[in-house]
Amino acid sequence: MKIQLTAAVAERVVSGMKWSLSAEFFACILLMILLLYFYERKWAVTARRRMYGLCLWLSLSSVILNTLCVVTIQNAARVPLWVNLMLNSAYFLISVLMCSMTALYLFYLILEHVYDKGCLRRARRWVSALTLIDLAVVLWNLGSGVMFSFDAMGNYQRGPLNRLGYGIMAAELALLLLCYFKNQPCVSRDMVRVMRTLPPVALLLMLFQLLYPELLLNGTIIAMADLILFLGFQCSSVEQDSLTGIGNRNSFYQEISLRLAGRQRFQVILLSLHHFVNVNQRFGHAAGDAFLYEIARWLDHMEPEGRAFRFGNVEFALLLPWESQEKGRSSLETVQRRFQRTWTLGDAETLIPARLTELVCRGQAWTEAQALELLEHGLRLAKQGPEETVECGEAVWEALERRKELLELIRRSIRERRFRVWYQPVYRCGTGAFSSAEALLRLEDFQGRAVPPSVFIPLAEETGLIDELSWIVLEEVCRLLGGGQAAGLETVSINLSMQQFMDPDLTGRVTGCLARHGVSPERLKIEITERVLLQDLERMRKVMGELSAKGVRFYLDDFGTGYSNLSSVLDLPFECIKLDQSLLVAFPEDRRADMLVHTLLELFHKMGQRVVVEGVETAAQAEGLRRYDADWLQGYYYARPLPEERLLSFLLDRSLTEAR
């Protein structure tokens, strides 16, 4: 609360005391600086900012009026009586109005995270009534002198209601404290800090005023209160996203936490703009930023009680009160329909699709972390799956629990070395031998059930654990090749993660592992998909060049999946191309599929590349590929992935068969 030290100057004037206005001038300068910073940036115009701006102007007006009142009272003989009456009346009115506006601002901050606005409406009525009482008494004072008057000599005289302003402020303070403690679970950390800081600072300044009555500190107390509120709530870095002007991620976290603490019912719509990079490429980054601003503005103004936040680079969260199933469904459909229409910015017009997830809290005993986990997992599913919108219901919660269990399984299996490397032999058409193999990672859960690589590999990539898994594979492969037990096995191919390619010591670690096990670099092949290449092509070019110089060779993996293109074959040092199994779905029965595979094999051979064909499962496929001169064939028709001991037996049996 700001403290009004009323024009209790009567006794001082009578005693001939002179007051120092230096503190008032300091307060005036400080308030002007706050106003300058307040209007310096084009921040989003919110109810909070409008109220604070009004508080600043009323504070500055109060300080200026107090200064003028002191000057005119001390020079009463030379100032017309009506001037003194008007100035002091204006001061009594503006000072209480300033305190009332500050009280309303604090009520707003206390109840900002409470959807039930009944308490705020009651506070407005009480504060308005108290302010109207002050206005009525000020007007009554002009004829009665119940607040102040001037005698025949021009001396200031206090009336019986001179301290009415203190009474009004005390009543507003009591209402604020009552509201604060009643709604404390929903009060933000910033507001808690203000309530802990502002009263002690004001009290210290008031004590200083009592010790040094000649130094007026009215304006200083007011300015310090405004400064504390500015630091707590008006700095853009605290809660605003600098680009869009809406709340940032931290602000969203705080909002969710307070809503949950207050057991409130709310709806969250979290959305991610799909392929927004295309907008930047087409219109430029400046236009892309402008589109983000327009989207943020639309979301923030979609509903009066709604609040929008920038959750990530191209992700936004919309927080709404939950009133009913029908209203919630309507809000979600409004967002869905908007992102099915184009966005226009000047001459630029484009469709910006979005993937959405919805979370509804109807009093569930969630923690902030659980709610955010659920939201992020729901958005992850929306991005990965065919559905553009995912509702965070029981199914998503169960999927999240399974994901957490799988993540714990991966981490524990890394610690306990539970991962196993299996090998799929690759058939060499020219010799009829199995002279190479691909290393594949395998995992079982604690009940001995196999966990598909298609399940744990994407999660390991997403969480960064793929790096450790890739090193496990490299170590096991080098140990196998260096052991000398794999009869006829010349080479083994492995996959490395993008994280490993970003390791500045990758070349040293790979060659070190080979040397430690006595393996020639030419026996290790590294498979790379173009999906990995495109993440940082220049870095990949550099690392591939370094490893190639050491003798390690590379395979372009999964050619034909929609990522790979011929420029990669021409520009990078690939020794071999691996055709993806998807190309064999209709081969050789379908004429066009047969022609495509034949053409690719012929093309790569003319370019000097050797080819491995994956996914060979039938005799017809094997015969057709051998007829088209494929170099190697890999698939279940020839051999399934095998654990190391079975691989050694397989290779030994083959070598014995060939010897006969």
TrEMBL record:
<feature type="transmembrane region" description="Helical">
    <location>
        <begin position="51"/>
        <end position="77"/>
    </location>
</feature>
<keyword id="KW-0472">Membrane</keyword>
<feature type="transmembrane region" description="Helical">
    <location>
        <begin position="89"/>
        <end position="111"/>
    </location>
</feature>
<keyword id="KW-1133">Transmembrane helix</keyword>
<protein>
    <submittedName>
        <fullName>EAL domain-containing protein</fullName>
    </submittedName>
</protein>
<dbReference type="Pfam" id="PF00990">
    <property type="entry name" value="GGDEF"/>
</dbReference>
<dbReference type="Pfam" id="PF00563">
    <property type="entry name" value="EAL"/>
</dbReference>
<feature type="transmembrane region" description="Helical">
    <location>
        <begin position="19"/>
        <end position="39"/>
    </location>
</feature>
<dbReference type="InterPro" id="IPR029787">
    <property type="entry name" value="Nucleotide_cyclase"/>
</dbReference>
<dbReference type="InterPro" id="IPR035919">
    <property type="entry name" value="EAL_sf"/>
</dbReference>
<feature type="domain" description="EAL">
    <location>
        <begin position="403"/>
        <end position="655"/>
    </location>
</feature>
<dbReference type="InterPro" id="IPR001633">
    <property type="entry name" value="EAL_dom"/>
</dbReference>
<keyword id="KW-0812">Transmembrane</keyword>
<dbReference type="GO" id="GO:0071111">
    <property type="term" value="F:cyclic-guanylate-specific phosphodiesterase activity"/>
</dbReference>
<feature type="transmembrane region" description="Helical">
    <location>
        <begin position="123"/>
        <end position="143"/>
    </location>
</feature>
<feature type="domain" description="GGDEF">
    <location>
        <begin position="264"/>
        <end position="402"/>
    </location>
</feature>
<feature type="transmembrane region" description="Helical">
    <location>
        <begin position="163"/>
        <end position="181"/>
    </location>
</feature>
<feature type="transmembrane region" description="Helical">
    <location>
        <begin position="202"/>
        <end position="233"/>
    </location>
</feature>
<dbReference type="InterPro" id="IPR000160">
    <property type="entry name" value="GGDEF_dom"/>
</dbReference>
<dbReference type="InterPro" id="IPR043128">
    <property type="entry name" value="Rev_trsase/Diguanyl_cyclase"/>
</dbReference>
<dbReference type="InterPro" id="IPR050706">
    <property type="entry name" value="Cyclic-di-GMP_PDE-like"/>
</dbReference>
